[in-house]
Amino acid sequence: MLGLPAHVRACLFDLDGVLTQTAKVHAAAWKEMFDGCLREWATRQGTAFVPFDAVGDYDAYVDGRPRADGVRTFLAARGIELPEGSPEDPPGAETVNGLGNRKNELVLRRIREDGVEPYEGSVRFVRAVREARLRCAVVSSSANCRDVLGAAGIEDLFDERIDGVVARELRLRGKPAPDTYLEAARRLATDPYDAAVFEDALAGVEAGRAGRFGVVVGVDRVGQAEELRAHGADVVVRDLDELLEAP
After folding, report:
1. How far apart are CA 22 and CA 18, in angstroms?
2. Are residues 35 and 106 in the same domain?
3. Looking at the structure, do residues 34 and 71 belong to the same domain, yes or no?
4. d(CA 209, CA 91)
5. Which residues have C-beta within 8 Å of that of residue 178, sequence separation ≥ 6?
6. Which range marks the domain in which residue 77 is found?
7. Dihedral (C-alpha) 175, 179, 185, 190: value to the nearest 10 degrees?
8. Does the reported pTM lie above 0.85?
9. pLDDT in tens, 41-89
10. CA nearest 122: which of 3, 13, 201?
């Protein structure tokens, strides 16, 4: 029993924080990158250094968004404007893309050093979904999605992968826009109404609601159940295997 509406024929899963325990890795990398940037900015401006909050700022401004969007959104919240640069900017460049690439270097280093662990409850649920012959896709803003799936040993569980690389190639808007989820549904030949979205990010549940998907499941890893509901989740669980016991 999957705890999903009977009409659901496909399941679309976010990666970080839903399938794999990499959200905390991303949050730590964002903090390391932004704190360095904010410290330099405060020194130049002669103002107090206010560090990046790896919980509040991460959830509000960067979680679930494409990398450059996260940089841009957080800096705007602090009243900081930087040149856009280009995706090829080196990690040391003081541009939106340069900072994003610096953050990506930090994430890859942490993944290499510490590895990637999947959430066992989520893996149980995905296996049950496949046994029920529902199709599965991963929908992530990360350009490292394939590497993370491989490191976690779960790449073979999914029929399609829509990630940061695919989104860039197809010029799809990132979450909270629904474009990447809609592309996943299209590739699975499934109407959005007949697909379920599984997300731990506020921007992600907004994307599921904006795409008019049949059900949006919020995964509460950090105690933000009410916020997930307010942003569009139909139901909130702490781990996906809770759904296996649901009516």
Report:
1. 9
2. yes
3. yes
4. 35
5. 207, 208, 210, 211, 213
6. 24-114
7. 130
8. no
9. 999 999 999 999 998 999 899 987 888 999 999 999 999 999 999 999 9
10. 13
Q: Where are the alpha helices (DSSP H) in the chain?
A: 23-45, 56-57, 67-77, 96-114, 120-131, 145-152, 164-170, 179-187, 202-210, 225-230
Is the domain of 18 the same as that of 29? Answer: no
Catalytic residues: 14, 16
CA 188 to chain centre: 20
User: What number of CA atoms fall less than 13 Å from residue 65's CA on the CB side?
Assistant: 21
Do 230 and 138 share a structural domain?
Answer: yes
Contacts 24+ apart (CB under 8 A), 45-53: 50/78
State the DSSP string of 66-85: -HHHHHHHHHHHTT------
Question: Closest by alpha carbon to 159, among 138, 179, 190, 128?
Answer: 138
The b-or-e profile of 206-238 (16+ CB within 10 A means b, else e) is bbbbbbebbbbbbbbbbebeebbbebbbbbbbe
Which pLDDT tens digit goes with each residue over 148-177?
998 899 999 999 999 999 999 999 999 999
Task: Single out the residue in 84, 114, 144 at which a domain terminates.
Answer: 114
Are the beta carbons of 16 and 198 closer than 8 angstroms? no
Position 2 in a domain: no
Helices 23-45 & 96-114 angle (0-180, nearest 10): 140
Tokens of 198: 């599984």
Cβ distance 233 to 215 under 8 Å?
no
Structure tokens at 212: 């008019």
